[in-house]
TrEMBL record:
Organism, as annotated: Porcincola intestinalis
Protein known as: Transcriptional repressor
SUPFAM superfamilies in alphabetical order: Winged helix' DNA-binding domain
One GO biological process term: negative regulation of DNA-templated transcription
Family: Belongs to the Fur family.
Sequence segments annotated as region (Disordered): 131-156
Keyword set, alphabetical order: DNA-binding, Metal-binding, Repressor, Transcription, Transcription regulation, Zinc
CDD domains according to UniProt: Fur_like (cd07153)
GO MF assignments: DNA-binding transcription factor activity; transcription cis-regulatory region binding; zinc ion binding
Amino acid sequence: MAGLKHSRQRDAIAENLRHRKDHPTADMIYKDIRNVYPNISLGTVYRNLSLLVELGEAKKITTGTGAEHYDGDTHPHNHFICRCCGNVLDMNDFIDCSKIKLLAADQFDGRIEDCSILFYGVCGECLKKEEKEKLSSAETSDRKTAIQETEVDFPA
Ligand SMILES: [Zn+2]
Ligand SMILES: [Zn+2]
């Protein structure tokens, strides 16, 4: 395999991926690895990431909204994608994908090898921000109503 000769760089990429929980994009890993290997190119990072996925040492998460994310945790688990900040979060594997795979295989000619479930929505951090904004805008509109009530004289 062509990429195998760059094994030190690949090890560094695998190591970087294993020690983070933020499901980085190739770009994010590239920025980190460049500190150790200043001459590495983004293309090399991409190639090594693909190889790691092929070797089963990493998983690729396709979000459908922009760049692909990579996960050093290859144990079966599901993911959540925040539509506000774009973060990819881990979800517990509370859904038994092995059962889903069997159900799917029942109605499918091909061979099903893997199954992952993506949840979409707003993450806890963004929800907190949203609540705060709602609260502060509710305060201002409360004030506005109060002002209106004192200023407007309704005819009796
Ligand atoms: Zn978020
Ligand atoms: Zn994950």
